[in-house]
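Page 42, continued from yesterday. The earlier attempt failed because a stray header line got pasted into the input along with the sequence. Redoing it now with the clean sequence only.
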Amino acid sequence: MDFNMKKLASDAGIFFTRAVQFTEEKFGQAEKTELDAHFENLLARADSTKNWTEKILRQTEVLLQPNPSARVEEFLYEKLDRKVPSRVTNGELLAQYMAEAASELGPTTPYGKTLTKVAEAEKRLGAAERDFIHTASINFLTPLRNFLEGDWKTISKERRLLQNRRLDLDACKARLKKAKAAEAKATLWNDEVDKSEQELRVAQTEFDRQAEVTRLLLEGISSTHVNHLRCLHEFVESQTTYYAQCYRHMLDLQKQLGRFPGTFVGTTEPASPPLSSTSPTTTAATMPVEPSVTGLAPPGETALCLEEVAPPASGTRKARVLYDYEAADSSELALLADELITVYSLPGMDPDWLIGERGNKKGRVPVTYLELLS
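This time it went through. Structure tokens are written below.
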């Protein structure tokens, strides 16, 4: 009991001494041991790394899970060391609603068929999103959290110890200075000065040892940057894969929807609206169609005679090319991204294709590579 009381009293005395030293430093009434410039740079870099890691982590969490309530729930599950329950993505939920709507409104109607196909695409998009979130969480978020909850806590602990050692060192320096001043006035015995010098040597040794430990940890931030760089590359790779999957799924869906001419206006007969009332993003199904043209047949049955193809009397459309396209044969027209061409449709053509003209050149072009303009 006596030992514990003495230890508590000693700890309280040390804490009081540090508090006094810290307060006097703040008011400029005591000297402060300064760290070298390299050490200060290491501290600044460590603080910057910690601050930006927190911001990147939080914003990535928002990117992967925009719902704040869901993020709080996931955080609680992690703190309780329990598995986070599987959650339906927004795309998968939309797919479910569309499939149910198609079933109730009529799966054989043009609208029902389209709802079913879009639902299948949305389901695939939702699955791709789920894979992306899972991969990004493991390869990117987890390493960032491990740094903040592991390495950074260790660094912070050692920095606090270094701060205490520095306060102890500066307090010893102050006591020695006072002892020497008292000795000069012959009011203090020489052994008090010797005691203060001994305490100063011990405090200096402890400070130097702690400074070295802290320095090594701060220099380890370079390894942290290398690790985070690798994780960042993996995050970009997973994001690239995700968007590539989304693009492929939507491209497939666009091709499927292009095979249902007339469904966009609620009828099974081809629609030919006036050019003046056509939306800039109208699909190939609403392109003007000439009643008959000689020499044209569906692709794969009879070769397209480009010399005999002429624009329909009902008019043509302008289109902006979205992506580069390399012609597969002489019946197709090669395309360059962002160029403008003239396009029109002919009877018997695959709805995924149009006739494109650029100057004196003409040929078949894929609808999915175009943005139709009014």
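Notes: The CA atoms of residues 259 and 351 lie 6 Å apart.
Reminder to self: strip header lines before submitting.
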